[in-house]
Amino acid sequence: MINCVIVEDEIAGQQILLNKLKTHFPECEVLAIIDNKVEAIQFINANPSIDLVFLDVQIKGGTGIDVLSSIENKTFEAIFVTAFDQYAIDALNASASYYLLKPIRDETFKKGVSLVLSKINKSSVSNTLLIPYKGSYNSIKYDDIIYFESDGAYTNVITKHERILSSKNLGYYEKILPKEQFKRSHHSYVVNVKHMELLIKSRTGILRMITGKEIPIAQRRMQEFMHFLQEQ
User: I need a labelling partner for 143 at 20 to 30 A (CA). Which of 86, 129, 154, 177 fits?
Assistant: First the structure.
């Protein structure tokens, strides 16, 4: 997943970006929508796992250029989305990756975002996961996660150090996790295969994790799971 932030003070502009991302780039997860300079700087500085920020030039309390220039350690790409083309040079000088003029045509949007996402994917592959719960996010390294356990509409994320309750369901995590490292063994579990200690095979199966926790492999998933392990 690509972790995104939208910095835009107009509700209509916020919704347009959300809809376009959902339609054309479903791999983009919007972590926050912020309408002012101060909160934008605070949130971006506090979340180093952000990959892409969409910024309007004119926002509450300042400009998107102010926001970009105030970030302590810029590890993300930035796309300016504005009706004012006179700010293009300033935005690019502030290390913006792309500049989109409103009203945004779909083709222009797809071209610009595709170029920036290509740059993100080439530069690095994120090794962390943001786990949302009640408006906040825990940043956890993939290698620290042992397994995910369904809890109704929620998910328990069990790591080497703690147990975290997430407001997202298990299906959400199955879709976004690295497929080469995480595998669903049962309707209630997704496991990190790096932390398997033992597999007991029968008609169904049991996985013993490094914590000693035994996790079932559903009968209908057994063959697929074994094939997956053989390819590792």
Answer: 154
Beta strand 77-82 with 98-101 is parallel
Query: What value does the CA radius of gyration of the chain take, rounded to a whole number of Å?
Result: 21
Q: Supply angle C-alpha 140, 141, 142, rounded to 5.
A: 115
Per-residue pLDDT tens over the stretch 7-66? 999 999 999 999 999 999 988 999 999 999 999 999 999 988 899 999 999 999 999 989
| Torsion sign (Cα): 8, 11, 13, 14 | positive
Rounded to whole angstroms, how far apart are CA atoms 224 and 185? Answer: 9
Single out the residue of 111, 137, 103, 105 nearest to residue 4, CA to CA.
137
* pTM of the predicted structure, to 2 decimals: 0.54
| Sequence-distant (≥ 6) Cβ neighbours of residue 99 within 8 angstroms | 79, 80, 82, 88, 91, 92
Q: Which two tokens stand for residue 188?
A: 């209630």
